Amino acid sequence: MIRIDGIKERFGEHIDFEERAAALLKISRAQIREIKLLKRSLDCRKKPLIQTIYSLGVLVNGKEERIVRARGNENIRLIDPPALSLFQELERRGVPLAKKPLGGVRVPVVGSGPAGLFCALTLAYLGARPLVIERGGKVEERVKKVNAFFDGGKLEKECNVQFGEGGAGTFSDGKLSTGIGGSLAAAIVAEFSRHGGGETLAAESKPHIGTNVLPAVVASLRNEIASLGGEFYFDTRVSDIAVSSGRLTALELEGKKSGALDCSAAVLAIGHSARDTYEKLLSRGVHMQPKPFAVGVRIEHLQRDIDMCQYGLADDRLPAADYKLTAQIDGRGCYTFCMCPGGEVVAAASEEGCCVVNGMSGSARAGKNANSALIVTVNEGDFGEGVMDGVAFQRKWERLAYAASGGYAPPVQTLEEFRRKKSGGGFGEVMPSCRKGAVPADINSCLPEYVCSAIVKATDAFARKIPVFNRGDSVLCGVETRTSAPLRILRGEDMHSSVKGLIPCGEGAGYAGGITSAAADGVKAALSLLKK
């Protein structure tokens, strides 16, 4: 396949891909067999002039190498056609895939977030008949329980925004962009597309699915795994592990399925909020170490203001604009994270007496507000060097947020009030979006002083790029503490932990950050079992 990069057109204007490709390759249209849109992005550097930049994949009649060589253009090169599925990517890598489920003992996969699902899917392709053990419910039931919680219902400790099929990313913006790159990441995005994430998903420069679409995608992945011999235990928690002579011998289950499950290998894809599992693993001698993470708030602006800052014009045809901002403040990293264009702030608790927030967007990103985490890095010097000290640090501020608001609805205040360490003055144009509710309170009481100070300074620094960022009526919601795992479950080059047979992976193990990288780590965990 010939790849052509850097094809530009003014946003909104029609482009004939076949005509443009033929002209650039200096061939006739009749020689083109197929054209595939590989990538599409917006160039806003000369706003309000907005351009769309395309990359095309072209299959031609004739010798592609000769055509590319004749052009001598760095934007025209030969590539292998991108994989259309994870199965195709594994096949290309020479992985021995099974034509039907094989016999033998099932491999347990603990957790059904992106890491767990893609680990299980890979194991199913290998014929290994995975057994997925999920403490929460099926995604269909989970959506009902989460919506009930948002609308005033009680917190379900085992099935909530953090726990349940699909993982925490199910209630997010559904971003699939990642820094890892490579053919595996591309195949994972293609797999999400194949399961209903959208036909053009793989072509977007910043692919996202949206929280309204993700549940159906997750259910489709589950159905494929089951069709290949996999099995799911929902509403079932791994409460303990059995170890003999440094090797895993069994998992102890509680819930709908209970008792000892004998196994010599299991994949841990538990997510970053399974604090009880961390504690149990530590007590069983699994080696872990604390790691830096970040805490802060969610900040909300009007989406139309963000659009104007990023595009320099108002045009309903343009997608809701996003941003990604970083700064060094007083020796700490401050940055925006998981920005949700046209989204809403969500109450994301998973423990009683703890208040925590996250953000999510639908596929259309059509909400009135934009929101993003605005967070500050913390490390062992702030929370201690014990393995569970980062977890204790998170809990401390989540409990203070709960006390400040009197429940799971987040404490909120305007940025101007936050600067003055006061609350209760009302809101301006920007209104809180959290369905669970919003309680006026001083968030300064819910975070360390050095974090609050850095947040204020960061808003001024970020306003140099997005002028509305430090607007006084911007709304802050607290607290954002679950940005990443506060510890890492140590593993060797073979991906096994200090307990042989126990393979930690994904975001909860401290080896990924986001849906695609977690899914990729799950695939690698499955392939590590093949080597054994």
UniProtKB/TrEMBL annotation:
<dbReference type="InterPro" id="IPR036188">
    <property type="entry name" value="FAD/NAD-bd_sf"/>
</dbReference>
<dbReference type="Pfam" id="PF21688">
    <property type="entry name" value="FAD-depend_C"/>
</dbReference>
<feature type="domain" description="FAD-dependent protein C-terminal">
    <location>
        <begin position="292"/>
        <end position="483"/>
    </location>
</feature>
<dbReference type="InterPro" id="IPR028348">
    <property type="entry name" value="FAD-binding_protein"/>
</dbReference>
<dbReference type="InterPro" id="IPR049516">
    <property type="entry name" value="FAD-depend_C"/>
</dbReference>
<protein>
    <submittedName>
        <fullName>FAD-dependent oxidoreductase</fullName>
    </submittedName>
</protein>
